[in-house]
Amino acid sequence: MDHLSALENKSIFIIREAYYRFRNIALLWSVGKDSTTLLWLCRKAFFGKIPFPVIHIDTTYKFPEMYAFRDDYAKVWGLDLIIGKNEESVGSGMGPSRGSKLDCCNELKTNALKNTIASRGFKALLLGIRRDEHGIRAKERVFSPRDENFKWNYEDQPAELWDQYKSTTEEDNHVRVHPILHMTEIDIWNYIKRENIPISELYLSRGGKRFRSIGCVPCCSPVESNAGSIDEIIEELKTTKTSERAGRAQDKEDAYTMQKLRSLGYM
Amino acid sequence: MVYSGKKVLVVGIDGVPYTLINKYVEKGIFPNLKRILSEGFVNHQMDASVPDVSSTSWSSFFTGVNPGEHNIYGFMELKKYTYKLAFPNYLDVRAPSLWEILDGNCSLKKSSISERYKDKLNKNMKSIVLNIPQTYPALPFNGILTAGFVCPDLKKGTYPESAYNYLSSMGYMPDVDATKAKDDPPGFFDEVERALDKRLKSYCHFLDNGDYGLFIACITETDRVNHFFFDAACDESHGFHDKFISVYGKIDDIIGRLYDVFMEKTEGQGFFMTMSDHGFTPIKKEFYVNAWLREKGLLKLNRQREYFEQIDSGTIAFALEPARIYLNLEGSYPLGCVKKEDSSGIAAEIKDAMRSISDEDGSSVIKCIYERHEVYSGDCASNAPELVCVANDGYDLKGNLKKVEFFGKGPFTGMHTRHDAHCILPVGLKPAGRLKIEDLAPVILDNFLEPDKEN
Q1: What residues in B contact A102, CB-CB < 8 Å?
Q2: Spacing of C-alpha B70 from chain mean position
Q3: Is A105 on the interface with B (CB under 8 A)?
Q4: Against a cut of 0.80, is the pTM above it?
Q5: What is this model's ipTM?
Q6: What is the full DSSP assignment across B313-369?
């Protein structure tokens, strides 16, 4: 089996396993390339019709292109779309220029998601995070429990051996399921290319710049790039590998330092 | 190469107190140091830096200036304009080190010390610098360096590559695994002794083969052992007393061996000294500064976040390890709300309130609280904390954010002291007055003055 099919098989296994075990689940769709790829995999896992809701957390600060993309494809793919919004905070004028960006994320993303989960009682959420995004993700599980405050205790996680995923949790907890944890940034682009998955045009270069990741307008900045097609993005990622690794090396050194300082009581 | 001045060997022993050396010399645990002290050397008590953490104190030692010039205030900082943790390394040291000054190539760095010795020293002096904390990553220079704590990658921490090849092939250990001290104490002591054997072997290798004017060899295992087992230092009934003494016996061996090899090579003409970056004393209790700030309503936390990103709006002040108190200044932090013009008043109030902190038996916790301008001067003084506390012996000040109670106990039995670092110097070389760690660099550099340029 080729590499991409092997990755796809694994993801589909995890998606079906999560649905079978929890039933009351939802997919978190940010409209970015990773969660759109995950959404595509969910459609394939259930032969085109996703049997659970898709949540989009709307901070009201997303790119207009993202809203258009979301609404178009929600129709095309027949999604049961839930739009989660923290109306109260939005109403009171919360934004990145008021308070910190952290507070903004916390109010408009985290609390909006908490409310959505609480109102529908979801037991598990499918998320499109990848292990190569950040050093700390190396410790992630495919089935990853969160407590009522959304806290992730990476030192106390169930073992995951031979595709045996633990799906029982405490009453207040929910489980985050990560079906594309094993994919890398370049795997995602190769898979998008093979499957011809629609993605937001923001990823493609316009005037020498493109977005490598997309979210809220005030907190996203484009990178210098002339990659105007998916093929060109794949080529670019192959050659910009060094800078990506440099970033990862810093994370790794920091993680080592933190561990050392912690062992001597400095944290 | 022949340099004017004597060759210098500094043996750094992390966290070994002046008083403990005297005690162990007297008890016969330190026969080599006893012999050395009888050959024209004196043990002096010395003040460490403020705060007395290794990264800061070693930086003061190897630059000869205060943190206001060298910019290292601790093992962690917050990234500018954020509450995100950052870990300063050698690239953040703003003042030139002894070896950079001796090399005659400080690149763009300068300090009051490097200016004072400019054009007065031998040029292109070679140095060998082994295991000093806060020297990672190793930058190219005229000599050999392998970085001490924290050294995440031995290769990046060692210059030149031939030195890395030697160290990695002989099984050199940059650090021991301190987590073992709790879980497997005998295993921890074994690892400490193994690391010390490797240090002795590699340090002798460089001493034998290296061309140098200045040689600095540091031993950091003493600090690790002291953190976890300082209660065993003088308590013969302690289960790990013998192990503790065995490690210290080995330290004495290493010092004796390095001294003998050095004196033999220099035909008795070398300049030898030992020093530590701070002292140690047994812990009575840990005191959690941030818990205290919270109780006083000065620190607000949002528990859904991590580390210092927990700092919430309305926060006036917070403490980074060990007891560096920063004000949440408007314009300096995302949720900063303290106005610049109010900062000195607020700092004075906090200082007053902290002075009266006492344990349940009435013992006072804080020995003194320094305001920034009292202890720091230089271009980087604006990065300094507003207040820094030095504790009374027995009260280990901690910047932990998780604690709710003021006092507690951790797995540690020893804490740093500022006033009880040591320095063994040849008779007559101690500068006048109370010895401070930043006084040592000039003592070393004076040795290398070119005779006709001394004035």
Answers
A1: 83, 305, 309, 334
A2: 13
A3: no
A4: no
A5: 0.85
A6: TT--EEEETTTEEEE-BBTTBTT--B-GGGHHHHHHHHHHHHHT-B-TTS-BSEEEE
Would you give the distance in Å from CA B17 to the centre of its chain? 13
* B110's tokens: 């300068």
| B152, closest residue in chain A (CA to CA) | A253
- pLDDT tens track for B32-75: 999 999 999 999 999 999 999 999 999 999 999 999 999 999 99
A245 interface with B at CB cutoff 8 Å = no
For residue B147, give every residue at least 6 positions away whose Cβ sits within 8 Å of its Cβ, in sequence order, or none.
B90, B131, B132, B135, B136, B137, B138, B157, B158, B174
CB contact under 8 A, B304 and A150: yes
What's the farthest any 2 CA atoms get from each other in chain B?
A: 65
Residues 6 or more apart whose CB falls under 8 angstroms from that of B346 comprise B316, B317, B327, B338
Shortest CB distance from B412 goes to which of A149, A150, A265? A265
Quote the pLDDT of residue A168: 63
- For chain A, say whether B330 makes contact (Cβ under 8 Å): no
Residues in chain A: 267
Which parts of chain A register pLDDT below 50?
242-248
Query: Using the beta-carbon criterion (under 8 Å), do B335 and A106 form an inter-chain contact?
Result: no
Q: How big is chain A by its Cα radius of gyration, in Å? A: 19
State whether A260 and B153 contact (CB < 8 Å): no
Q: Can you tell me the distance from the alpha carbon of B133 to that of B62, in angstroms, rounded to the nearest whole number?
A: 10
Paired sense of beta strands B414-417 and B279-282, if any: antiparallel
Q: How far apart are CA B120 and CA B350, in angstroms?
A: 46
